[in-house]
Amino acid sequence: MPMKLGDSIPSFEGATQWLNENGQQIDEFVSGSPTLVYFWAASCGICKENMPKLNELKALYGPKGLKMVAVHMPRYETHTDIEAVKTTIAEHSINDVCAVDNMHKLKDAFQNEQGWVPVYYLFDAEGKLKTRSAGE
Which residue, of 48, 51, 57, 85, has the fewest CB within 10 Å? Predict the structure, then answer.
């Protein structure tokens, strides 16, 4: 069953690795701030197409307190290669703190049962889910 509006932001414990910033302080990073968590995959064309839009949102709302957390969730075993993920991050200007979810523990924590990418979760400053959207 997917997350429901009002559910609390899940723990990010279980990320295989963190890129772009130190994920050990992730709970402090998102605490008290509206937060957009988005799942993406290096093999996802729609994810890549949407990156400029996410960067625009960050430019507009980041100064007002919005935090953004990317979660790379590989859809195939071959996409667990960290160097390939780093290359995709560089090519598509993903500068948000990025969890790598090779074991799909974050997929499970966020109840992304279908393994959708992209999928977006917007949490308010109290850490409660306000909206969720998948696809374009």
Answer: 57
